[in-house]
């Protein structure tokens, strides 16, 4: 039997609950070492009408958004311009040093500042023929991302043979299982990911120490390890945060929440590493939980994994890491270091692997069969960084570096000992996928050696036979959205095919040009985790660590049909595609109409308005563009892949370029800029310092703006602006600002602050939600009652239980649940304000909801 697992979600004190509300960037680990410590309750982006409303607003410069949006996703380069998979090892290059930065936050801790990494890597490459450096991309702040490979030398022919075997494992697993060369000579890929949270530094330094040891050691164990394995190190996944001492990158994004969306260049680089290198084992090094936390996790477990194979290896490797960490000899009395803990074994719930937004929960979809978050114990960030003496900080950092090193060495030992079975299990993951085999539920019989497996650990899914993304204007709400979704699937290494003729599948007829995602493919789990509705898991656990629903099919604005058939082969006339077909189009003559149902269409509209084109809004909410702007439309159709159709409509209301003052979260700021709005970030502090409201046409408020916290002058200036212009508000901050200024006569009702997921909604067809999808996303949902005169319901939560997938329970007193939200207004509007109780821009993810905010801004301004 598994030992009793103390619940992570214990009842929090009022003080702790208030502290949680102050953190804007998602769940973090317990920052304070203490005897018997457990990871803290989830820390959410949340809101709360009764809690602090002055959460930090986003303030990233526009240049970082531009860089994130335009940075290409490329193959790894070794400095010669040659694709990484075609050259032998070593792949050495001389890195140009960065300018010395004495303000780098690593320095105070006695750790390696970012500017010292390139010289260190140059020196490591000179130690022999085992170390190679490739540039995996650049961060949002423009810093290089370094992938280091340590392995025995390989000729070009040998490297190509390794790539052939890697592709065989993925695409022809049954053949790979029988190929003697795979068993004999394929090098197991192991991946160590470091410093994805910028102020969790020590993994980088431990990696550099381990690379040096592997580069120079001449013992038989090391030479055998490098002859039979490739060891990859992402030296710092978040150089922006490492330098600045922040959890997030330069855009304010928690990169370990971005994998399903991949909005940030650092995440796209890690995604490409996963695809190119196909790790069997990976460790993601974090801080700070005392004692050292080593996954596997508590339930719920991701239902799209081959979890039996994953748990078998992840638990066994965790035991080895635990022994290595505890074997360092640190004690609570002497060092303040508690014994290591394994959530699967030691805890009840609250540290789950359900969403694919975290690195170790994303990697299994690319064949990783042992993946871990490791949280070293001694906090050195946040208040500790500011308050503790330098000597104490450096003592703690040295302990963390040693523990991170022990975890990595133990993982290499596990890989070397179990190399054959690891590769066999990776092959089995892909074999089940390509053959459509059923998942194997975990049990003491199917995963021997893992104690305490119970029914609470069993999560599987019923994979459909395929998904179809239909072509044609009647079948597809937005061709632009469909193309974006297809490109995203392809970027995640999901195979997509396009019909060359009309066809019939699953009892429906589809037009030529429709896309088919056959789930009998290597990355079926990836395809399903992105396209499926997901599941309502509200009854499974009391609360989730982070989000619980994310369906691209429901949230990205594209129509996606599920096909269920027992047919072993899909009879569809189609061909494989490597990118979506262009849908950009401009009618050859006459007045043009641009629909405003997609973020890219909004971006194109804003480009026209910036250029001074006279655009008017039609009755259906679309934009009417004069024929004289056809040349600009052609350029925008190509840039944004949008269609300008012919129309005889003339439009009514003139549209103008909107300058948005935005007190918003980082994800919302990024989404506004993605739609090409002219945005100036504001906050309580900025307004108190004196803000020129002539720079803005509308205020969008969701975070970091507290009306009561404004001084007299700032409050008067804000009130005067809102009297003249207007407000778009989201969540508790927006509702509180509306209440303080009396723009809309509504009563906001706070739902469960832990709730999140995909919900069904009913759109009224008004100016804000015209053409909007019938699903939305919520995180700490709100709704509105007691609507006064002049208040329009733009959208409501659906009747019954509106939650489709995610986690949303009523509070202990029975309030705040989905039943209480059912049929209530989720978006309301009036002459000078629009309020959202949903999260239409959450972390730049729910693309299909973006136009609702854009329409609100255009309407109010």
UniProtKB/TrEMBL annotation:
Residues 1-29 form the signal peptide. SUPFAM superfamilies: Zn-dependent exopeptidases. Keywords: Carboxypeptidase, Hydrolase, Metalloprotease, Protease, Signal, Zinc. Residues 110-457 form the Peptidase M14 domain. One of its GO terms (molecular function) is carboxypeptidase activity. Pfam families: Peptidase_M14. This is M14 family zinc carboxypeptidase.
